[in-house]
Amino acid sequence: SPLAREYFVDENFAPEIVAKLTSNENPYGPPASAKQAVIDSVSGGNRYAWREMATLMDNIAEKEGVTTKHLMMGPGSSDLLEKVAIVRFMNGGNIVSADPTYMSLIRVAERVGATWKPVPCTSDWSHDLDAMAAAVDADTKLVYICNPNNPVGTMTAAKDLEAFCKKVSKTVPIFIDEAYMELAYGPEAVSQSPLVKDGYNVIVCRTFSKIMGMAGLRIGFMIAQPEFIKEISSVTRGGMGISLTSIHAATAAYGDDGFQEMTKTKNDAAKKYTTAAVKAMGYDPIPSFTNFMMFEINMNGKEFLGKMRDQGVGCRAFTINDKDMCRVSMGTMDEMKMFVSALKTLS
Ligand code: PLP
């Protein structure tokens, strides 16, 4: 049975929320370059955006060192997570993942008939790769790995993950959700996308919603073997849900290294400030490689969210191993100060 559960509460969408620290968005986006691209392209909106899509895909393929046959685009990576879940599991099978992890793909897989085989994270909240390899059986249709992992924010060691992928992908495709990878610092901040180039049956999924600040503009992509892309495309179409304006915005943002660097730097500063502040209050945050962090709270999660909401702060609450945990996204420094002040009133 699953270790992690989330409290779903309307509080997070309440109008009194001033500091929206719920959904791991980028408070600095969209980049100015992307906003201008939307304005400049909107008058072309009477036409389908095939040519513009081809340009964006060429840019991504070039940067990733793959061909456009290795790419599938979606209106957000959620769309790709769902399509993969539907196509891989429409005839049953099981999915192996960590618990806790990001549940989007797994929930859809379960709805179309899959069995979920959750594998508890290790004591430092990384993926227990040995246990995951052992959980793979003849009915396993996909292994889902979120790295860095949401909701805990941790990174699984790059070398270990690479070795796992090389071995286990011989039996089953391995889907690696790297939504937060570009925000991570240090030697472990390594994408597994070169494995795709090297021919392994690995799928790497990315999004424009996080480092590129375009959550509401909806673009994501996955890199996989052309046969895998063909399998998913045989049932569903890639890229059709993306608007012309979003494609132009994405093309601009993708090349906007300055914006991405600025986001990374400011996110890190917000994270350092928040980590120090919550530690000073006696909390013990899990070291995070992302734009959110998690720590145990000594209060029922629903009650906690209500009390934070009453002070204008939106965040999230989970129970993991029967412990109440808060997950807070990194906002601007002012928003993090609001979060810290609100949290102080509860301590
Ligand atoms: N994957 C992970 C791990 C996420 O946390 C999220 C969103 O928070 C997504 C995928 C989906 O993002 P989007 O559909 O905006 O690309």
TrEMBL record:
Pfam families xref list: Aminotran_1_2
Protein origin, superkingdom: Bacteria
Gene3D superfamilies: Aspartate Aminotransferase, domain 1 (3.90.1150.10), Type I PLP-dependent aspartate aminotransferase-like (Major domain) (3.40.640.10)
GO molecular function: pyridoxal phosphate binding; transaminase activity
Keywords: Aminotransferase, Pyridoxal phosphate, Transferase
Domain Aminotransferase class I/classII large: 17-343
CDD domains associated with the record: AAT_like (cd00609)
Family (UniProt): Belongs to the class-II pyridoxal-phosphate-dependent aminotransferase family. Histidinol-phosphate aminotransferase subfamily.
Name of the protein in question: Histidinol phosphate aminotransferase
Species for this entry: Arcticibacterium luteifluviistationis
